[in-house]
Design a protein that fits this description.
Rossmann fold, single chain, 14% strand, alpha/beta, globular, 8 helices, 203 residues
Length: 203
């Protein structure tokens, strides 16, 4: 844990110095140091965690259409008051609608967990689902800056029992080569460094 926190603090220091000096190569290097991305391989299912509606279900659909998976799992994340009132649809339902629009058959889509409030709860629910269905391999796509935290949590939960691949997704607003030119990119990178430290300390 000490080593992981040291990496996170080092990246934070690099961010602070390079943003101040406006050095693009160093900023891109900081992103390259932080981002991890696993190669794709055939798996039992692709997993859509809560949030990321603009890219996660689209990536899962591509994996299905490429024949890498035969099932897509959607996290049943926490539903707020607006969802309960029927004013907006839940993240899970939004992801399901995206998948259906992209041509994924309904019987290939399944939800897991219930009222999941954070990544830790999602990973625990996914572990339970995988154990129940004798799963051997999963693909869990996520945005570039959350890959390190998500992969650490998944590997920690599954050990060697299930092979988990975490491919990195470029959000529409930025990528690893220009993230500092976008408010969303700066906020996402800073938030993920802090969340990574927090998750390492708490869990």
């Amino acid at each position: 844990m000490r080593r992981r926190c040291l990496v996170a603090l080092l990246v934070t220091l690099i961010l602070g110095v390079t943003v101040w000096l406006d050095r693009a190569p160093l900023l891109q290097g900081a992103a390259d140091l932080w981002i991890v991305s696993d190669p794709l391989a055939p798996a039992d299912a692709a997993v859509v965690l809560g949030g990321g509606i603009e890219d996660r279900p689209f990536a899962a659909a591509r994996y299905y259409q490429a024949g890498l998976v035969k099932k897509i799992l959607i996290s049943h994340s926490h539903e707020g008051p607006a969802v309960e009132l029927g004013v907006v649809i839940s993240d899970a339902e939004a992801s399901r609608q995206v998948l259906l629009k992209l041509g994924i058959p309904g019987d290939a889509i399944e939800t897991f967990g219930s009222d999941l409030k954070n990544t830790n709860e999602e990973v625990a629910a996914l572990r339970d689902w995988a154990a129940l269905h004798s799963v051997h391999r999963l693909i869990v796509p996520t945005e570039i800056f959350s890959t390190r935290r998500v992969r650490w949590m998944l590997h920690r939960a599954f050990d060697d029992r299930v092979a988990v691949s975490v491919p990195a997704l470029d959000p529409a607003e930025y990528n690893s080569r220009d993230w500092w030119q976008s408010d969303q990119g700066i906020i996402a990178f800073q938030n993920e460094v802090l969340k990574y430290i927090y998750y390492n300390v708490k869990y």
